[in-house]
Amino acid sequence: MAIRFIVQGRNVSVRVDGTPSLDERICASNELLAYAGHRYRFPQNRNLRAGKKRFREERLLNVERELQSNDLLGVEVLRVPQFSVLGPGWFSWYRPDWELLNWWGSEYRVEIIDGRAMELPIGIDGRYRAFLTAPHVRCLTGWSQSKLEKHAFECPGLLKKPGQFGVPWAVETVEFLKHFGDPKFPFLPPPWRPHDTYRRAA
Length: 202
What we know:
Layout: E1 3-8, E2 11-16, H1 22-37, H2 53-56, E3 83-87, E4 90-97, E5 102-113, E6 116-122, E7 131-133, H3 134-141, H4 145-151, E8 170-172, H5 173-177, H6 194-201
Antiparallel strand pairs: 1-2, 3-4, 4-5, 5-6, 7-8
């Protein structure tokens, strides 16, 4: 068997040998979901976990999932580049959702906000998104839904009127992202500069 699941107690490791067929990869992807759903842990990638029941039920079966890259273990295989430069200060970036084990892709533009360059996700109208909902925040922070719920009402930019945009919870995009790395909000991740990071790696 080209794909092996090595079980030690409640931990599972995935080993891929040779070049398994697509059918083997899809079968193993379903097995991976089953292990995650039964609350096994994956030392190769701590982001892969059981997650909330309602999200587990939305995870797709019979799709190919990442089995070899530890950083992305368990997410659906992405068929397009994760990061692409579209023009000066303009790029597309796909981020994994560790609850649904799929991706959220958006275009971003570098905008100067209060004298500081910030990468802001833009909507289909070409303008930066006025607000971010829970799935967007999960993807941009790498959080689980549980962590989001723990800090939901401490987040900078929290919309004061629930349901204001037809969703129960959202944050103002600029206000939220500009506080990444702010010591006043220690639960937020450090600021990311994906455009510079990928440009240096090219």
